[in-house]
Design goal:
The protein is α+β, with helices and mostly antiparallel strands and about 400 residues long. The chain has six helices and 22 strands.
């Protein structure tokens, strides 16, 4: 997993046109705003096709929402890009039918716009109720309690694992967490395909070769794992917004960083999810033997005492929090943080990285300290981190019903 720096300082950027003959479908979906959703920003992204030195190119501007036509948009990887005209929509769809172009549009263009403006993109409304039918099946109930943030933790936020030569330091304080359910396993490729096939095709990742559309048999036209051996592997190459969309579809949410730490380290503050013993080949892919992810039910000895599996190793996991150091390092008044959720946004324009959200755990490593429960990672929400980030979901204890008309929209 690597962090990328971008030197371009402009809000509008261009992408060369690549001809493709298959149009990317877009969804026309409507649903009600979920209770507790943040109010949408008064600004959003608008895509245009303009003339460039090498032919037609896409540009993205940040505009007031009053300037968009709500019926004109293109959807890709969980994100909705508003467009100025039906012709722009048709041409952009043609361009991003090439997976390489779609990847650049999201992980490069949108990333730069976000980092320079602090304005988040719109998300595709989430459709379907199939994900909510399972309730808390496959989840583990963690009773509320407190754990100690010791003030010493490993942090890769500075830009790469090579900089993690010593732990970071902060205040020592208590964190109190309310009871919640957490998925026993990470979300798998087959789980994610069920989400895509329940009306959420716009949340697919065109460059993810682990998932594709079947061209024959009873699954014709449906999203399926590219190979059955991949069905139980954690879904990767999903951005932060895709993870949030899946969680909403399932009637759940992403865990906060504090909830993730509590699930991994417990009240007793385990060094690793399974305890204080060093990692080995029974608890993770350690030392690394497999170049890619493996099934989520491998390494049963990785489980926490409560039964939550593979919280470190194999793949890292998106969490709900935006990133900054101060809210994590500084003890709150009174010395106890109660259900902390981090900062209110991820825009830090005075820093080199400018915009960060959080993931936890770690994927492939031969260094034991990277698999500790306290390790922190701040990355841009569009980063696919070399296929190393997946996610699992949580549900607050007592939230027995979820609206079947959930929508995620910024």
């Amino acid at each position: 997993m690597r962090s990328h720096q971008y030197s371009q300082k402009h809000r509008r950027i261009s992408l060369s046109f690549v001809l493709a003959i298959v149009l990317t479908p877009f969804q026309m979906a409507s649903a009600a705003e979920p209770e507790g959703s943040a109010a949408p920003s008064d600004k959003t992204y608008l895509g245009r096709v303009t003339a460039g030195p090498n032919g037609p190119q896409i540009t993205i501007d940040v505009v007031n929402r009053s300037e968009i036509n709500a019926d004109l948009y293109v959807d890709t990887t969980g994100l909705r890009l508003w467009v100025e005209s039906a012709d722009s929509r048709r041409r952009i769809q043609t361009m991003i039918a090439d997976p390489a172009v779609a990847r650049n549009l999201v992980t490069n263009q949108m990333n730069v716009v976000l980092r320079e403006s602090g304005v988040e993109p719109a998300m595709i409304p989430v459709r379907g109720i199939e994900g909510q039918l399972a309730g808390t099946e496959g989840m583990v109930l963690l009773e509320g309690g407190e754990f100690t943030r010791t003030g010493e933790f490993w942090d890769s936020t500075g830009g790469g694992i090579g900089e993690d030569q010593k732990p970071s330091r902060g205040d020592r304080y208590q964190v109190r967490i309310s009871s919640f359910y957490i998925d026993k396993f990470k979300v798998t490729n087959e789980d994610y395909c069920r989400f895509l096939n329940d009306g959420n095709g716009g949340y697919s990742t065109p460059w993810n070769l682990r998932i594709g559309k079947s061209v024959f048999g009873k699954n014709y036209g449906k999203f399926v794992p590219a190979d059955r051996s991949l069905a139980r592997n954690p879904v990767v190459l999903v951005n932060w917004y895709q993870a949030k969309g899946y969680a909403a579809w399932a009637g759940k949410r992403l865990p906060t960083e504090a909830e993730w730490e509590y699930a991994a380290g417990g009240k007793e503050g385990r060094k690793y999810p399974w305890g204080n013993e060093l990692p080995d080949e029974t608890r993770a892919d350690f030392p690394v033997q497999y170049p890619h992810t493996v099934s989520v039910d491998w390494f049963p000895a990785s489980a926490t005492p409560e039964g939550v599996c593979q919280m470190v190793g194999n793949s890292a996991e998106w969490v709900a929090d935006y990133f900054d150091n101060s809210t994590y390092r500084k003890a709150p008044a009174g010395g106890v943080a109660i259900d902390p959720q981090g900062p209110t946004n991820g825009f830090l324009p005075e820093t080199w990285f400018k915009y960060r959200v959080m993931f936890k755990g770690w994927c492939k490593t031969n260094r034991a300290e990277y698999l500790t429960c306290t390790k922190r990672h701040g990355r841009g929400p569009f980063e696919d981190a070399a296929a190393g980030v997946s996610f699992r979901c949580v549900r607050s204890a007592g939230s027995e019903s979820v609206s079947p008309k959930a929508v995620i929209a910024k």
